[in-house]
Amino acid sequence: MSKYYECPKIGLADRTWPDKSITKAPAWCSVDLRDGNQALAIPMNLKEKQEFFDILVGMGFTEIEVCFPSASQIEFDFIRSLIEGNKVPDKVYLQVLTQAREHLIKRTFESLKGAKKAILHLYNSTSTLQREITFRMSQEEIKTVAVNGTRLVKSFLSELPDTELLFEYSPESFSGTEIEYAVELCQAVRDAWYEGGLPSNVSKQIIFNLPNTVEVAMPNRYADQIEYFCRHIGDRDNVIVSLHSHNDRGTGVAATELGLLAGADRVEGTLFGNGERTGNLDIVNTALNMWSQGLDPKLDFKKLPRIQEVYERCTGMKIAPRQPYAGELVFTAFSGSHQDAIKKGMDYMNTGNNHAGPWKVPYLLIDPKDIGKDYEAIIRINSQSGKGGVAYILHTKFGYELPKMMHPAIGKIVNDVSDGLGRELDSKEILDIFVNNFLNVRSPLCLVSCTTAQAAAAEQLNCNAVVLFNGTERILSGTGNGALSAFVHAMHRSGINGFDIVDFHEQSLGSGASTEALAYIGIRDAKDSLFWGAGKNTDITTAGIGALVSAYNNLLRNRSE
Length: 561
What we know:
The protein is of the alpha/beta class. It has helices spanning 32-38, 46-59, 73-84, 102-112, 128-135, 139-155, 179-194, 219-232, 252-261, 283-292, 304-315, 336-349, 387-398, 407-421, 427-438, 483-493, 540-560, and strands at residues 27-30, 63-67, 93-99, 117-125, 164-172, 202-212, 239-245, 266-269, 445-454, 461-469, 472-480, 499-509, 516-525, 530-537.
């Protein structure tokens, strides 16, 4: 096809970025309040902007692009409210954006008066398409716009004598700009910035922000562009190379990660990727990717659900259920095999000192607790779910430690109910299914009373019990080496038989005076079918007999179906 064409390659045969690792966190700059805000159908008001700003500060951002002061009165008023209200921590740089026009630059400097720290961000479009189609200007003419804009910024520096100032320049649509020209352009901007010297309050370092404004190629091409730029810009110690990726191809995070490998020092982006068209870089995704590899991103996500709540309320945007790390379903497993593996991983992490060691839970890239997520949301149950997931819910939510051999029995019933309803089941519904089908089941066999006493033979007990069987009272008696075996003997003597106990487990539930005993019993009939029951009582003997009665009732129910 001839309608589209491949982006030109960068002649970088000796690239080094593929063999590198990200070894330290970049400087992060949030552009939520400017780039993200301009992409909203209803931009944030002053109150919402302030709340969002406070969230960003709380996360640890020290560079925040708060507005485009000359774009509207609310933008100008917001930055003035921050400065005049003394709402900016000493460590935070307020970043403001302006085009290379004198009246816009003047208005921008007016907005910054009294700021302690600021980044003045100047930009103009430089790509081939912008030059040829939008502006119809040559490379030299575009460079003149950038250089003159830089000189205009310098001419206003005396307006901010007490502000610690950094200068940032963006060749907008860097990704679509010839790389040699992009370097030449930025060198010309730097020369203009340095000519005649700088006031003492202005940093000698300059930020060159290289926007992947439109993802015109695969992420590796962007990485090549960044490495080429880093190699050729010169005076590298005084240059902060910044990335600003958009997500047109859905690879904004990948482009940023490869750009960092290629030598970039700084990243601009938004929470959850909000921005024009397909969005900006998702800083949450990128930073937590680093976290998952054992690298501290220097941003705090311990209260991610709170951050999400503020984001959605202030922007009116919704976080997708499958959004990495933040989505409602990303720490949820419906598949039975996934649920089983997660449960085993969680059990492993809770054994001995494993909780202090490396994270080893299949299917979960990070520990949800690290970002304020709740474990009970990890495994959710529908008709696709497996036995391990149901057991996990009963254990983590309600404390029932079902033996592994029992998992298929409860799993099948839960899956059948979910399938019949055509929806997911919540934890309360799962508990109800367990209780109704397995716990202290009293029909058609119901235990009325049971007593034990020492038998004549050593280490033997006599059992005397009263039961209702299909509504008819029976008196049972038997002998065994324990209360449970004596009750089984009593059942068999009265004709309630056709089974053998094959598995028995017990546990305590609760603590102190409220502790209850739980027992789980599996029995096998003559056809080798396995049936389960559970019993709960303050007395362990009664709980065990209750579990046996429940199991036998499930055997009888199966016979009648």
